[in-house]
Amino acid sequence: MTGHITGLDSRMVLDSRGQPTVEVDCYVDGVLLGRAIVPSGASTGAYEALEMRDGDPSTYMGKGVTKAVLHVKERLEEALVGLPVDEQRLIDEVMLELDGTPNKSSIGANAILGVSMACLHAGAAHHELPLWKYVGGVAGGLMPVPMLNILNGGAHAASNVDVQEFMVMPHGFDTFQEGLRAGVETYHSLKRELKADGLLGGIGDEGGFAPNLPANEEGLKYMVRAIEGAGYSTSEMGIAMDVAATEFHHDDGYHMDGKVLSSTELSEVYAGWLDDYPILSIEDGFGEDDWRGWADFTKEHGHRVQTVGDDLFVTQSQRLSQGIELGAANAMLVKLNQVGTVSETLEAMDLASSHGFNNVVSHRSGESEDVTIADFAVGTRAGQIKTGAPARSDRVAKYNQLLRIAEDVHEYRSPFV
């Protein structure tokens, strides 16, 4: 019997914020063939699958993952041993059935995803394929346009900036390597601009600079300065934003720049920014339950900007189906740990693309040296990836993996043509 799962192992390791997370090993025919580390979010949507934490304040301030780690050995291993490692859907379905809850709260999405990803790696290794090719099959790969988060705010930084991420998108280049270089040079240009203004302080969770600014629009001004300071034009290097509006949405409205705004008023703010800055993409511009705000904005401005649902869809087909019906967005952010298995992630991505939505594969603010999403973005031909600033090894690891893959995959094109 070859190509079958013979064992799983699991342990606690640390993520980029110094918090515990789950690592899983997958053994095939007695040989370690797959390993994966589960990421963790800070700005998390209410509808995400459950990340199981121990809750014991005496250990890792309640953030321990002992229960999830034990569930891999005590519950998942027995159910999966003997299954073909390349039957990803079957592996995931067995785990879902064993958990039996809508949000994976019995076993924990972090335990389930660790196993799902480790088995994916093991399947690729068993077939002696790079992960991107194993994921993509005969369709081949597409190098994604990167969104580089070079200015951090919101839940990712200790600053007064409401908008969580200001990103540059090098979409007007012929190769991934050229686009990444332009993004990296713009990152260093931003550092120079902030230093010149006496605003160079710390960096946020994702490696971007985290200055205090008098208003959110100042972030956009600095992005343009950084792009032009690096010698690029705003026609080849655009701006993407993750507003993470759920974080500042309260019962009385959206609290931004010291004002309380309705959905309509916030939409007008974005419309003004679209007029004045080279913004290509706005993620989570409205709260996770503000379907009307999303739909109204996308109907009015979706022809000129990508509207990306993250907290809105949480990479789950059921939420996405509702968004498709309402016309609430035109793109979905893809985070494996929001839904908890590789198969469900692929299912949601297929649903999105079949309805004309773009897919943007994404990291989380709590990351590691694991580079699964780099291969995943290429193999699924998503066309876009966001994985932080070109700083801090947890972010750079993904860019370096993409540079390796780009030696074999040469197709690279803008989703904004």
Describe what you observe in this structure.
The chain is α/β, with parallel strands linked by helices and 417 residues long. The protein has 13 helices and 14 strands. It has helices at 66-80, 88-99, 109-126, 131-136, 176-196, 216-229, 263-276, 291-301, 317-326, 336-339, 342-354, 372-379, 393-405, and strands at residues 5-14, 20-28, 31-37, 145-152, 165-169, 238-242, 249-250, 253-256, 259-261, 279-283, 306-309, 331-334, 358-362, 384-386. An 8-stranded mixed barrel has the order 4-5-6-10-11-12-13-14, surrounded by 4 helices. α7 (263-276) runs parallel beside α8 (291-301) and α9 (317-326) runs parallel beside α11. The protein is globular, with a radius of gyration of 21 Å. 57% of the residues are buried.
Supply database-style keywords.
alpha/beta, 13 helices, 417 residues
The number of helical runs is: 13
- Poorly predicted regions are none
Percent range for β-strand residues = 15-25%
**Can you tell me the overall shape?**
globular
> In percent, how helical is the residue content?
25-40%
Main sheet: which strands, in order across? 4-5-6-10-11-12-13-14
The arrangement of helices and strands along the chain is EEEHHHHEEHHEEEEHEHEHEHHEHEH
Rounded mean pLDDT is 95
Label the structural class. Answer: alpha/beta
Largest sheet: 8 strands, mixed, barrel
